[in-house]
Amino acid sequence: MPVTTVDLGKRSYSIQVRTNCATKLTAAIGKSCRTDRLFVFYDANLFALHGAEIRKALKARRRELQELVVPSGEKAKSPGVLKKIYGFLLDQKISRDDFILVCGGGVTSDLVGYAAATTLRGIRWGVVPTTLLAMVDAAIGGKTGINHKTGKNLVGAFHQPAFVHCDTRYLHTLPPREFVAGLGEVAKYGGLIGPKMIALTQKYLSSADPHADQPLVRLIHASAAYKAEIVSRDEREGSLRMRLNFGHTFGHAIERATGYGRLRHGEAVVLGLLAAIELSSLVNPRTAKKLRDYREMVISLIRQVKRVEIDEKAVLDAISLDKKRSAAQLKFVLLQGTGKPYFADNINMSQMRKSLRAMLACYKVHGGTDAPYSGRKRA
Ligand SMILES: NC(=O)c1ccc[n+]([C@@H]2O[C@H](COP(=O)([O-])OP(=O)(O)OC[C@H]3O[C@@H](n4cnc5c(N)ncnc54)[C@H](O)[C@@H]3O)[C@@H](O)[C@H]2O)c1
Ligand SMILES: [Zn+2]
Q1: Does ligand 1 come within 6 angstroms of the Cβ of 256?
Q2: For the chain, which domains are there?
Q3: What CA–CA distance (Å, rounded) separates 325 from 344?
Q4: pLDDT tens, 20-55?
Q5: 258 Cβ below 6 A of ligand 1
């Protein structure tokens, strides 16, 4: 059964990964919802595509729905939109027995999850992640929050959901670039988990139909299970959970250096993964051979990452800015081999520059040479 558990004692919850399975969703809501009404939030793009069918499934239990469609896009993770959500919840006199359901990508679950965490000091909530990135990452682990003008995700709270319900049918409408972004996080798990996950991802990447449900279910389940295990052991990111930042020190710096929004977060992660692989090989040349197949897989994703100008110095400056903000953030997650991550906090500027340069050279040659993963059958 494609179900995995985040094991947090009384706050444990399950992550379901299925296809066309509205009945399991309504059952999960039935278990969690103590009142006869349900607060439902939808990402605007998702609502236009799937709102009617989700609403129909939710109404089947004759529960009163209080619905709000929230704007799509990173800008929605703002104090302004949050204020509107508070207004909506409090005007409807939400109580602590009520339940909030969030349907959308990582933006919507971060934003509405934070509203759930802070309204009346915490309302229980469940998530229907509808992007690949949210299914394998953002919806799991209870990190919620909004952006501040000084940086991303700087205002937030830990608030674990009561369930995560992934249904691959929503991915059929996901734009190709969003698919690549989600695959960036999946490829991250390949480095962390090791050969089995890499083989599963390679198999998926070489398949003719990227929307085939069963391969997607397997890929999402394997990714979600790994994150669930890490969160179960280190909910508050004391140390272990920080390994999920593999590829992200470079990735975040690339996002900042290119101007937020030019690359999707997951696309920047793909580039960050290659830079981290190069750095791992530089620090310990014997790992280069062990990482060869994994490196090839990441390059196959780079072919689908949109080509944008990336200034080497701007990326290094962004990493230094991170360093000033928190020494902990500059612990690089590197690999001794696939499935063998470790933390390295003694990386110097010359090593960073060399590995970044190697990645940028590869991106220049391969970046954007393949169409992003699309619904079309590939030859
Ligand atoms: N909380 C965490 O642990 C965590 C982890 C990783 C990322 N994040 C956050 O997640 C966000 C990125 O999430 P994302 O990549 O899901 O982006 P997103 O939520 O912006 O969604 C991407 C796009 O897809 C659209 N969309 C959503 N579902 C769709 C569907 N089924 N069909 C068609 N279009 C659909 C959205 O409207 C949006 O335009 C960032 O803000 C990031 O900070 C959080
Ligand atoms: Zn990420």
Answers
A1: no
A2: 3-173 (3.40.50.1970), 180-366 (1.20.1090.10)
A3: 18
A4: 999 999 999 999 999 999 999 999 999 999 999 999
A5: no
